[in-house]
Specification:
Radius of gyration of chain B: 42 Å
Distance between the termini of chain B: 115 Å
CATH architecture of chain A: Orthogonal Bundle
Number of strands of chain B: 14
Largest sheet of chain B: 6 strands, antiparallel, barrel
Structural class of chain A: mainly alpha
Strand content of chain B: 15-25%
Shape of chain A: globular
Shape of chain B: elongated
Oligomer: heterodimer
Strand order of the largest sheet of chain B: 1-2-5-4-3-12
CATH topology of one domain in chain B: Thrombin, subunit H
Helix content of chain B: 25-40%
Chain lengths: 172, 326
């Protein structure tokens, strides 16, 4: 059962990952645009239990680390998304007031995206990598958050339906 | 009620974090396996990205253009300004280049003739409303210019200073119908009077009825007393036609000026005539004709068979072409 669920999840992640790097990345949107894959992975984690959220985050992060455009060391995204995936699942899974509220889920995902990017930038600077100027960073991070707020309502129903089909444990 | 998690999930999280840190350590130590994974991903996605790029670039450009509409407009305006400036610079450069060439030829001429000159820019080509042919130059009394000074350019005579103002001067061109100059035919030393006709041609009238002139003769200024209004030796023009002047008192000839009076930008005013007359030293060298090879074909009949009387046939000849270059 776990193998089947894991395989389906991996397959869906790979598909979204391919869409992200083959199609979405071709369109240069203002204010840094958005990462469809990041939104999807964090939405998936938010819909899962903390364990699944952490594993999903780790796998999604590992795929992001494999991206040629990634300038950080291998495992950096995996580290961040494991923690953020666990965190978002933990917060949402355990709080009854947040369950069943689509708006809260959108805000959660947008917040998680912003935290993930901030963590990535922070780790990059800790590793001594070039992170760009502050103005550009703030613009990009805020832009990503706003774009996520706009895109997540369209991604979440898809993620929710696929998640329910595979796990049949969570509802949206 | 908030889910508190259990030891299992915490252990899983710690394991994942430790694995991530392990991967980071491996990558930062330069383990080739980790580096190779990224190259593998690029190899897999590269062809798809290239294909998608062709299809989605117009969409991407559209979004980019919409997003940067204001900036694009500003850039466009800035580029148009730059373009206009560059065009002006290019025109200025071409103009300057032509002026430098003219100035150089003037200096060559003045140096050979031993004239003391002041160079000047033509700031006005006269006006069609004025019936006299004149130009205005940017030097005047402040550069010690006085009336009746000779004005030359690299090709030869331009005219004579007619009016002098504080910082400009009016020059009467040699083509003006009122312009008269004493000239000498280089070589034969025959003298005559050259009269402007209002065009790029002038009429030469020789003073001696016995003297002769022929097409191609070069005329130079004879010079005036004290070098005013004309200094000696300045090339003026070349004889282009000699009409039949039978019955006339003196020989006439049509002369073409050396100077292109409609394309003047830099000229020079001769302040002081040379101590010695340069005579024919300033006569421009005659253009040497470039030989054009002509091909002449000679056709000579060569009998290929016994004579017609022997065979009873009509004569046949095979032409032998021979090429000669002259």
């Amino acid at each position: 059962m776990y193998t089947r669920r894991g395989s389906y999840t991996a397959l869906i992640f790979l598909l979204i990952y391919a869409v992200e790097f083959v199609i979405v990345d071709q369109v240069h949107l203002p204010f840094g645009g958005f990462s469809l894959f990041l939104i999807f992975v964090l939405s998936w984690s938010a819909l899962s239990s903390p364990e699944i959220g952490a594993i999903g985050g780790f796998f999604g992060g590992f795929l992001l680390d494999l991206a040629p455009s990634s300038n950080g060391p291998m495992g950096q995204w995996a580290l961040i998304l494991s923690a953020v995936g666990f965190g978002i699942a933990f917060l949402r899974y355990g709080d009854d007031s947040l369950r069943g509220s689509p708006l809260s889920l959108v805000v959660f995902v947008a917040g998680a995206v912003v935290i993930s990017i901030c963590a990535y930038v922070l780790l990059n600077s800790l590793f001594g990598l070039e992170v760009g100027n502050m103005r550009q960073l703030v613009r990009s991070i805020v832009g990503n958050g706003l774009w996520t707020l706009a895109i997540a309502p369209f991604v979440l129903p898809v993620a929710s339906r696929l998640h329910r089909t595979i796990f049949e444990t969570r509802e949206f | 009620m908030r889910y508190g998690g259990d030891n299992r999930s915490r252990l899983l999280l710690v394991t994942l974090i430790v694995t991530s840190l392990f991967l980071i350590t491996l990558d930062m130590r330069g383990v080739p396996l980790v580096t190779g994974l990224r190259q593998g991903t690029q190899s897999v996605f590269g062809p798809f990205q290239r294909a998608a790029s062709t299809a989605f670039t117009p969409i991407g450009n559209f979004f980019s253009d919409v997003a940067h509409l204001g900036r694009t407009r500003t850039q466009l305006a800035s580029l148009e300004d730059q373009n206009a400036k560059l065009r002006r610079s290019l025109i200025d450069y071409k103009g300057t280049d032509a002026q430098i060439k003219q100035l150089k030829s003037i200096l060559d001429l003045a140096g050979t003739g031993g004239y003391k000159i002041v160079s000047a820019k033509v700031i006005s080509q006269g006006t069609s409303l004025s019936f006299s042919q004149s130009i205005t130059i940017d030097v005047g009394a402040n550069a010690h210019i006085t009336r009746d000074m000779t004005v030359i350019c690299g090709d030869g005579l331009v005219g004579v200073v007619k009016e002098v103002y504080a910082s400009t001067s009016l020059v009467l061109l040699e083509s003006d119908p009122a312009f008269r100059i004493g000239v000498r035919i280089a070589g034969s030393q025959e003298i005559g009077i050259l009269s402007g006709q209002g065009t790029d041609r002038a009429v030469l009238q020789l003073l001696d009825s016995q003297s002769s002139v022929k097409k191609g003769d070069v005329l130079v200024a004879r010079g005036s007393e004290g070098g005013k209004p004309f200094v000696p030796g300045v090339p003026v023009g070349v004889v282009t036609a000699v009409p039949n002047s039978a019955g006339l008192v003196s020989q006439l000839a049509e002369v073409k000026y050396f100077t292109h009076l409609h394309a003047l930008s830099v000229v020079a005013v001769v302040l002081k005539a040379p101590v010695t007359d340069p005579r024919d030293a300033l006569v421009p060298p005659k253009p040497t004709p470039t030989p054009i090879p002509t091909v002449t074909i000679f056709v000579t009949p060569t009998p290929s068979a016994p004579g017609p009387s022997a065979l009873g046939n009509s004569p046949s000849a095979s032409p032998t072409p021979t090429a000669t270059k002259k």
